[in-house]
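REQUEST FORM: STRUCTURE PREDICTION
Request ID: SP-0412
Submitted by: Lab K.M.
Chain count: 1
Length (residues): 239
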Amino acid sequence: MTRNVLVIEDDRDIARLVELHLRDGGYSVTVVPDGKLGLRQALAKAFDLVILDLILPGMDGLEVCRQIRNRPEYTPVLMLTAKSTDVDRILGLEMGADDYLTKPFNVRELLARVKALFRRVEALRAKDTTAPQKAIRAGDLTIDPEKRKVAVQGKFVRLTAREFELLLEFSRHPGRVYSRAQLLDKVWGYSYQGYEHTVNSHINRLREKIERSPANPRYILTVRGVGYQFVEPEDLEKR
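STATUS: Completed
RESULT:
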């Protein structure tokens, strides 16, 4: 089955480069150079992935992403951004991008990210066909894998898709120590040396949302020199 990818990018050279390599990878590609036109395409046709530039004429990538996320159908979004500071803005505003790449990027890495997103979608669909998954409870924290919702003291907490996947992976394996490379592989679906900071920044944001005191976390613990772990049930009441 050929996967359909929508590329919304106004830089002709980058758009052409992405299009050529995706087509070589066996994907069907539609390229649009404008935010408004790109959103119109995204809403009119069922795409398997949207690769979306941040800065666009007509409508910026953040707004395009927000409107795509308002649809009931889930479509993965890979954001392209020219500055690392813009990455922080994307994730901070939580418009729902599944992943991001900072320009200039390596084409091999782009293709790896695309494949990883497709694997993740396939895994989520496979889970949907299995038996219902029970909610996970740890102290004041409740994680509902079926509805993909998280609550702290009964109050809903809005997480990005990646933050939710991180928390779910941790909570399903309390006490297990993960290195940053292992988390990249399990949650992002790829592992590149030098991208461990991505894990750190996501965990910091996750702690801000679920911990009473992010500086003294109760749930997601740092294992110095190794990585992170989710607190074990018997140790939770001590914290």
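NOTES: The two ends are 50 Å apart (CA to CA).
Reviewed by: T.R.
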